[in-house]
Amino acid sequence: MSVTTTLSSREFNQNTSEAKKAADKGPVFITDRGRPAHVLLSIDEYRRLTRTDQIADLLAMPEAAEVDLPLGRAGDVAVPADLG
Q1: What is the tally of structural domains in the chain?
Q2: What global pTM score does this model have?
């Protein structure tokens, strides 16, 4: 279960080690004048969130209709690898 923590910029600056520990349990929102300005994440969570499938990302983009994807022809067949 993810726990969300919110810290002011001042609290973050005064207690960075606690913020890093909190980021292991969930996102840490850092506010500036009461408004969210930054988010601290563990590296594992960052990598999970940024893992993408390039083709799916291209298809989700509004301008995807103008992108040419290099797809094989219907007549292309697999060729066995020569391991010898």
Answers
A1: 1
A2: 0.59
Q: How far apart are CA 54 and CA 13, in angstroms?
A: 37
Which segment of 21-30, 34-43, 50-59 scores lowest on mean pLDDT?
Answer: 50-59
**Does a structural domain hold residue 63?**
no
Report the C-alpha gap between 83 and 38 in whole angstroms.
Answer: 52
- Closest listed residue to residue 28, CA positions, set 3, 43, 6: 6
27: domain CATH number is 3.40.1620.10
Instruction: Inform me whether the pLDDT recorded for 82 exceeds 90.
Output: no
CA dihedral 58, 63, 64, 69 (to 10 degrees): -90
